[in-house]
Design brief:
By secondary structure, this protein is α/β, with parallel strands linked by helices. It is built from 17 helices and ten strands. It has two domains: 165 residues, 3-Layer(aba) Sandwich (D-Maltodextrin-Binding Protein, domain 2); 210 residues, Periplasmic binding protein-like II (D-Maltodextrin-Binding Protein, domain 2, 3-Layer(aba) Sandwich). The strands form two sheets. The chain has a five-stranded mixed beta sheet, sandwiched between helices. It has a five-stranded mixed beta sheet with strand order 6-7-8-5-9.
Length: 439
């Protein structure tokens, strides 16, 4: 019986066979004897006079056409006369990819597709090959972002380029700080500093109960460690590392600040935005846009707190990549497209529009969010205060089966060591089940 992957491979084989046959027939019919063996591209490169042959490059994104046109199509077609971008809209999950392929749709560039799925569908393509071919340097991209992509496969292949980096920051309610007579957060705080400050901002005032510190995403502090949760080769859970106990202790301290009957500390900014009873919350920097029209909310941002003895911010696990599909017949043009997005001209535009920049250029970071009135007088460049944590040499693909489930933990009476043992056992079972699927 054919598996879904076997069916996909069969469809792809037939599709590519048809494309190659069609291209071969076209070449034989159109190529004059005097031009035999000489491609249009070679002729254009040698003369420099004739326009390059028009090429259509298809791009898979989850955006609608308006956003696709603004972010991708218009900038590329303005920069390259010979390239037309075609919009293919679908989610980047495995199910929708299978449906696309079954319908004979094979995009040249894929946006936000995981490296696991690139490899599952045999789409993975090492961009170092094209970089060598075109003598292209990636020196203008922060090395840690490229390292993160290379770390997600055993061979260190560059299976995509970073398009956007997800940055987090410490949001704070200035009015609550003023009411409690506390100085606003600085950009050089440790987690312990943030907890100590949060305790000073917790209590009742004028009949309202305030809480000092929340995390919209409880995993953020742990993601500042340069470690795997599981062994990359065996999938064994590595909870004996000191960082696990440090993290669990930190979560206990944050929960222990108190100040709320609702123990749901890790699901978002409801208390910060709507009730406005939380003084500080760690959230995605896009909160600047989300919350700009919230009545009465007077907020600013500071840098993400760091661990004692460390100066690094979070790892770039939330990097959003652009990849070229292995079967693409227009790899050279696709390479022009995805590398253009990393260049200074586009990066300045992206940064001004709140798209987390990937560039080494300090000028790019200075432009962050500058096209938004919501960022006026906001300390948005605080997200660049600390360098990103380096990834492990190989990021374990098994880590996706380990879930701290901190919201449940915070609402339970279970000792942290017992909780750690419980979620370790759950991860071990999940890893074993995944291994059995591949047998």
């Amino acid at each position: 019986m054919l598996t879904r992957r076997s069916l996909f491979m069969m469809v792809m084989f037939l599709f590519l066979s048809f494309v190659l046959l069609a291209c071969s027939t076209k070449d034989e019919g159109e190529r004059g004897e005097e031009n035999l063996g000489e491609s249009n591209q070679d002729t254009n490169e040698s003369t420099g006079d004739e326009p390059m042959e028009p090429v259509t490059v298809s791009v898979l994104v989850h955006w609608d056409e308006d956003m696709f046109n603004e972010r991708f199509k218009e900038p590329i077609e303005e920069a390259f006369d010979h390239i037309t971008l075609e919009h293919i809209q679908a989610a980047s999950n495995r199910e929708e990819l299978e449906e696309l392929f079954a319908n004979g749709v094979f995009p040249d560039i894929v946006f936000e597709v995981s490296q696991e799925d690139l490899e599952f569908f045999d789409m993975a393509y090492d961009l170092d090959e094209l970089a060598d071919k075109h003598d292209y340097s990636f020196d203008h991209i922060k090395p840690v972002f490229l390292d993160s992509i290379r770390s997600k496969n055993d061979d260190g292949l560059l299976l995509g380029l970073p398009y956007e980096i997800i940055y987090h920051a410490l949001f704070y309610n200035k009015d609550i700080f003023d009411a409690f007579g506390q100085d606003y957060p600085s950009d050089d705080m440790t987690w312990q500093d943030a907890i100590n400050l949060g305790e000073k901002l917790t209590g009742e005032m004028d009949g309202t109960q305030y809480r000092g510190l929340d995390l919209a995403n409880a995993n953020i502090p742990f993601n500042q460690f340069s470690i795997n949760k599981t062994d990359p080769e065996t999938g064994d859970v590595l909870t004996d590392q000191d960082e696990f106990s440090q993290y669990m202790k930190l979560i206990d301290e944050i929960v222990g600040i108190g100040g709320s009957d609702n123990e749901d500390f890790f699901t978002g900014g409801e208390r910060f935005v709507e009730e406005q009873t939380t003084a500080m919350i760690v959230e995605f920097i896009q909160g600047i846009n989300w919350w700009q029209d919230s009545p009465g909310l007077n907020f600013d941002v500071a840098a993400l707190p760091v661990w004692e003895g460390s100066e690094t911010s979070h790892r770039v696990d939330n990097l959003i990549p652009l990849s070229i599909a292995s079967y693409s017949e227009v790899k050279d043009e696709a390479f022009e497209v995805i590398t253009y997005f990393t260049e200074t001209e586009y990066q300045i535009w992206a940064s001004r529009n709140g798209i987390g920049p990937v560039s080494e250029n300090a000028e790019v970071e200075e432009e962050f969010f500058q096209d938004y009135e919501s960022a006026e007088d906001k300390n948005v460049t605080a997200v660049f205060e600390h360098p990103h944590a380096t990834p492990p040499e190989v990021i374990s693909n098994w880590d996706r089966f380990f879930d701290f489930r901190m919201s449940e933990y915070a609402d339970s009476d279970i000792d942290r060591n017992e909780w750690l043992r419980t979620i370790m056992e759950e991860a071990e079972i999940a890893v074993q089940e995944e291994k059995e699927k591949g047998q």
